[in-house]
Amino acid sequence: MNRNKVLFNPFDAEFQANPYPVFAQLRQEDPIHKSIFGTWIITRYADALTILNDKRFQVDNFPERLQLKSAYLKEDNLDILAQTTDKWLFFLEPPDHTRIKNALISSFSRASLNAMRPKIQAIVDDLLDRFAPRGEMEIIADFATPLPAFAITKILGLPIEDYQQLIRWSAKTVFIFDQPVSLEEYKEQNQILIEHRAYFAQKVAEYKRQPNDGLISQLANYKDNINALTEDEIISTSILLIATSQESMKGLLSNGLLALLKHPQSLEYVRQNPGNIENIVEELLRYDSPIQYVSRRAVEDVEVSGKIIHRGEYVVIYLGAVNHDPEYFSNPQQLDFSRRKPNLGFGGGLHYCIDR
């Protein structure tokens, strides 16, 4: 194949504004594409599913890389950033990954989230009522940003009045996942996490003395000594949940609404069929995924669809691409709320998004 024919640059402004034409070209001409950066770009659903479920592909050791970057700092270090991310599910493998995820699953089960529904509905109603007299709202600032912040604050059992501070912290913390990130930006994130950790350390101590029905209190008072989380793990996990739930849900809400506004017939379907809300959300998640990619590192040489991915090489699975793979989804460019096939909007395999 003529590599000049498929020019893949993830930092290109045109690609970031609308990546789907590039995804379609890559899928057709070079679905397992070795980029100019040395990473493998995955754009087919079947290949993505294979990699996500193959133990020979593991998550990046991001905390270790942070420690190496600290050597380039003359006075400061990134110890707090490394300490925090070292306990994040994103970067853990079993058995620690399994232990921490199992401690969280009950709070994100269907039954637990259904029990939260009246509280979340009250938050939604309140947000909408605030702007009803105006007849308009700025969807991201007025709705998609505060709603997930209110929701995760309720789930964690934190004071609702703290949500704005939590949003400010998480807005900085989530940029850890953006690449490239300068050393100065890492230093700023390190400092923010010092404040963030102090807040959660205080809450863990408070909820040990005075438990409530929130997740932090449950983790702090966990009775199973074998699977109990350390205080460091509780703090780091709470920071992760705040940051990731904020960004993923904000993206899903804003992308989903934009898709519906562009497709009036689909919007009318949503209005007429509230009982099909789960399928509707899944299709909106597939159609324009708020999380566009996940990465894995090969721990040994692996052959995938005829390509050899060598030990130590990285693969980047573009979820937006695989969720538009016509070999798996019929008419993927169309919104279709009758679809039943599972999508990879929140990843898959061991490291899928827990709040799905």
UniProtKB/TrEMBL annotation:
A Pfam family the protein falls into: p450
Record-level Gene Ontology MF annotations: heme binding; iron ion binding; monooxygenase activity; oxidoreductase activity, acting on paired donors, with incorporation or reduction of molecular oxygen
Coiled coil: none
InterPro entries: Cyt_P450 (IPR001128), Cyt_P450_B (IPR002397), Cyt_P450_sf (IPR036396)
Family indicated by similarity: Belongs to the cytochrome P450 family.
PANTHER family tied to this protein: CYTOCHROME P450 YJIB-RELATED, P450, PUTATIVE (EUROFUNG)-RELATED
Protein name as catalogued: Cytochrome P450
Taxonomic placement: Bacteria, Bacillati, Cyanobacteriota, Cyanophyceae, Oscillatoriophycideae
